[in-house]
Every structure is written in C-alpha cells, then in structure tokens.
Amino acid sequence: MKRDHDKFYLLQNNKEIKQSFVEVADAAEMISFKSIADVGCATGAFPNYLKKRFPEANVVGIEYLDDLIKKAAIDFPEMNFIQGNVLDKNSIAQKYDVITMLGVLCIFDDYSKVIKNVLSWLNPKGRLILHNMMSDYDIDVFVKYNPSGKQFNENKLQSGWNILSEKSLSLVAEENNAKIIFSRKFKLNIKLETRTDVMRSWTEENKYGEKDIFNALHIRQPQKIIVVQKT
Questions:
Q1: CA-CA-CA-CA dihedral for 224, 6, 109, 190, to nearest 10
Q2: Predicted TM-score of the model (pTM)
C-alpha cells in the first residue's frame, strides 16, 4: 500500500477545530468513560481537542507514521502519543473505553483486519467511533489513483479513498462480538475551496443546497459518523 497523501498534515494547522472533531466528540459524550484513544491521530489535532472536551479522561493519540507522531509530540508535549499499527494487533497493548478513527478506515483495503484489530484494543462494552466514507448501498468501493504519466506502475498506485458499505462494517463487527448502535450522515456546514493539492477535498452544492464533498477522484464522498459497541 502506497500512501503519500498524509504528508500534508505536516503543514496543516493542528490547532484548528474541525466540525468532525465536534460531532465525533458529541458521540463519545453519550457515555461516561475514563480512557479514549484516537487512532491515526496524525499531528495530534483531535487528541488535543479531546483533552479540552474531556479533561478528566486519559487521552492518547496513536499514529503509525514517524514524522507525524514526532510533530504531535513537539506541538503538544503535555499529551500522550504512542506508535501503533492497525494492521498489527500486538502493536497496542493497552485497552481503552473509547477509540475514535477519523478518515482512517478508508485507507485500507483489508478493512476486516483493521476493524478486528482495533476492536481488540477496546475494553468490554467499549465503543469504536468512526468518521468515514460509508455507503448506504451494499457495495464496497476500492479506489486507487496515480499522478498523470506515460506509463502505468502498479507499485505507485496511491490508496486512501475506499468507500465501505455499512452492511460490510456491520457484518465484520458482528463477527467480532460487536454491533453498530448509532449511524448518522455527516453533512459539512462550511464551504471548502479547491487547492493546489487537488486530492484535498472541496465542496460543491447539490440541488438540495447541501455541500457534497469531492476531490480530484471525481467521486462524491458520502460520510457518516458511526458508533460500534463491543458486546
């Protein structure tokens, strides 16, 4: 799997509070918890917000990429960041009451392995809260792209914009003693302009006046916030 896109986080303002941060934290607030981990935390923006929302909780940021986790530790020295890999169950030993993943699941083709591993990091009755592209249709979409060039090179194909069906997520959750207990469409409130990096998302208004999310893939991004609870 090749994924260069995440490098943009190194230049992004990690003090900015995004709409997704607020809505995922609202979903976490539905229960009381003592520990919460954000998996794929990049440079620490969301864990920093979580600590402000839930100051009494043990907040941990989990990230795989060295450059991102180093920047997170520098920018938020009071926070706890650890390295982990969603494809390696044993990379994380601690258990958490709540785990959040924002835009992470869509990176991996083997979504069942990712879900299984992350659910294993939860305490009994723990909750996994996802903000992800998610389809209402019973179709899983796997997306790859490559910058324009003269030759095709399979090893250079970029990953990261898969659209999983809610049915597949439900089936994998049930196979791992968990179930979906909450699902809601995420509708972006602000307008996003196009940028030099055409893989960064922008919005286009649809006929209902809603802001659909696109990028250079020319695929509308149907996003949801979903809560999966271990039984």
A1: 20
A2: 0.95
